[in-house]
Write a structure and sequence with these properties.
Pfam families: ABC_tran, TOBE_2. The protein has 350 residues and is α+β, with helices and mostly antiparallel strands. The chain contains 9 helices and 21 strands. Strand 17 and strand 18 form a beta hairpin. Helix 4 crosses helix 5. The structure holds adenosine-5'-triphosphate. The site of adenosine-5'-triphosphate has 11 residues, from helix 1.
């Protein structure tokens, strides 16, 4: 096991272009499961490949444990990687695939190590099969087993679930989490799927345009986004962002009086859909609105309400009487509102 320390990593693919990774510093603790999350093109894969040694940073250093590995090739870094497309060898059996890295390293006890790794991903009964006789999920498990079989001190994964269908993705995600606990290896995991990031990571580093804009526990980044981008990127639906203005009669949000605990003239009120309580009767401090759209999600209703000029998304119990066009009142507890400066888009705190 080992910790990972990235210091001031900058990587440009072509001279003069915007950096794919821009001055990133990040420490991943020994045994920690760190998720790199962000939209397509934000630099996640480049950063992961820089840790692996498949890319080299223009500026910055990579330390694994107490070793400076910045200039070392991948094979000298003691790490394993699982890629998006399950790169299993079609002409090798499951057992041969899993043992591949061990044979390359000429390590003893291959058979036992293969059986152990296969057991971790529940492939014990498939050791003699060829990949063509496996499902997508099973092939991806072979790739994971092959990576963990070498007992790397660092395990890197790049969107390993993205080729699986929705149901398999869900079950494999749980398996991966259980496996990570068992392995106790330092893991860096790349995804653009925020649900996956929140469910898997001990910590999540949210990336935007080559930079890490926020890192923290899943609940920290979800509940306390540092800026509008993070609030919008995490959560389904994204955090509501309602304009607040201060006029002669005090603050209004979406045109209605509202208590705002900050100075200034213009702010944005960030409120998550599940933190808004909808009611069919007026109550003090609630914003009046009208139902525009109702989307049943099975366990809840996703209601879009028009409040002034704004659309507000609310999650309600399924028995909430949300008929199209019906009046409703929306209330959010003050401690559940996160305030942002519209000019900088940064959070002001609560
Ligand atoms: P995705 O989720 O789509 O894989 P990502 O967040 O992993 O995206 P990267 O693949 O790291 O992003 O790419 C970051 C930026 O670097 C993008 O603008 C991309 O076009 C560019 N880039 C990546 N690889 C190369 C390359 N080999 N040559 C030139 N530019 C590249």
């Amino acid at each position: 096991m080992s910790d990972i320390r990235l210091t001031g990593i900058t990587k440009r693919y072509t001279r003069g272009s915007a950096p794919a990774v821009d001055d990133v510093s990040l420490t991943v603790a020994d045994g920690e499961f760190m998720v790199l999350l962000g939209p397509s093109g934000c630099g996640k894969t480049t950063l992961l490949r820089t840790i692996a040694g498949l890319e080299h940073a223009d500026i910055g250093t990579v330390h694994l444990g107490d070793r400076d590995v910045t200039a070392l090739p991948p094979r000298r870094r003691d790490l394993a990687m699982v890629f998006q497309g399950y790169a299993v060898f079609p002409h090798l059996t499951v057992a041969e695939n899993i043992g591949f890295g061990l044979r390359m390293r000429k390590e003893p006890g291959i058979e036992e190590a293969v059986r152990h790794a296969a057991g971790l991903v529940q492939l014990d009964d498939y050791l003699d099969r060829y990949p063509s006789a496996l499902s997508g999920g099973q092939r991806q498990r072979v790739a994971v087993a092959r990576a963990v079989a070498v007992r790397p001190s660092v395990l890197l994964m790049d969107e390993p679930l993205s080729n699986l269908d929705a149901l398999l993705r869900l079950s494999f995600r749980s398996e991966l989490k259980a496996l990570a606990k068992e392995l106790n290896t330092t893991i860096v995991y790349v995804t653009h799927d925020q649900v996956e990031a929140l469910s898997l990571g001990d910590r999540v580093a949210v990336m935007q345009a080559g930079r890490i804009v926020q890192s923290g526990t899943p609940m920290e980044v979800y509940d306390k986004p540092v800026n509008r981008f993070v609030g919008g990127f995490l959560g389904t639906p994204p955090m509501n962002m309602l304009p607040a203005r201060r006029g002669a009669d005090g603050w209004t949000v979406a045109g209605h009086p509202f208590a705002v605990p900050h100075d200034g003239d213009h702010l944005l009120a960030g409120i998550r859909a599940e933190n808004i309580e909808a009611s069919t009767t007026a109550r003090p401090g609630a914003l009046p609105g009208r139902v525009r759209l109702v989307e049943p999600l099975g366990s809840q209703l996703l209601v879009t309400a028009a409040v002034g000029e704004e659309d507000v998304k609310i999650l309600t119990p399924t028995d909430f009487p949300a008929a199209d066009g019906a009046e409703l009142w929306l209330h959010a507890a003050p401690e559940r509102v996160r305030w942002f400066d519209p000019a900088t888009e940064r959070a002001l705190g609560r």
